[in-house]
Write a structure and sequence with these properties.
Blueprint lengths: L1 H18 L6 H19 L2 E3 L12 E4 L5 E6 L11 E9 L4 H4 L5 E3 L11 E4 L14 H4 L10 E6 L6 H6 L3 E10 L4
Parallel strand pairs: 1-2
Antiparallel strand pairs: 2-3, 3-7, 4-5, 4-6, 4-8, 7-8
């Protein structure tokens, strides 16, 4: 009897230890994100504008915070053609994660398909206005689509996307994403 009681006690202790995992709360993730974004802004000397520039011209280090919390810098506005909802949009980018320990230690982890030869990769595709039913929710987000209200085909932007406006992975990991460059290509113009 005493032996089974000890086994039961050990099992209970193990269950308590497992249930008290080190999973961050949503509040903790938001606090960590805020610190990471502030560090990214400070380390890069980014200036956060209070208002969107009337001419849509940004200096290299200027960003504006959009209504959904995404920070936008327009590098090139692209054509005057604006994306229509449900249009197929392709994009190429270089993205890093400012909360990643490698980023903090000056060797950021990048995901990229941008550049002269794009490492032999194709652009990624999404349907404008659709955040949930995409073929690959790991590559698309509300934050990534937000600039399309302001820019056209072949536009290039920089973005800081909070995790709650990020990809499925970003939301799951509580990590904001920094798009160092993001180019939109309207599929109909290929």
């Amino acid at each position: 009897m005493k032996k089974s009681f000890n086994i039961l006690l050990i099992l209970c202790a193990a269950l308590i230890a497992i249930s008290c995992s080190k999973t961050k709360s949503y509040t903790d993730m938001l606090k960590d994100e805020k610190k990471a974004i502030e560090r990214l802004i400070d380390e890069n000397g980014f200036e956060i504008l209070k208002d969107f520039p009337e001419d849509s011209v940004f200096k290299e280090n200027q960003f504006v915070e959009l209504e959904n919390g995404t920070y936008l810098n327009i590098i090139e506005k692209g054509t005057s053609q604006r994306a229509q909802y449900n249009a197929k949009i392709l994009y190429r980018c270089i993205v890093s994660y400012p909360m990643d320990s490698a980023y903090i230690n000056s060797t950021p982890y990048y995901i990229q398909n941008y550049g002269p030869h794009s490492n032999g990769t194709n652009p990624w595709e999404f349907t404008y206005g659709d955040y949930a039913s995409q073929a690959n929710p790991y590559l698309i987000s509300e934050g990534l689509q937000a600039p399309l209200e302001y820019v056209g085909d072949r536009a290039k932007v920089k973005l800081i996307v909070p995790f709650k406006r990020g990809t499925y992975n970003d939301q799951s990991n509580g990590e904001p994403a920094y798009y160092e460059i993001l180019e939109y290509i309207f599929e109909e113009n290929l």
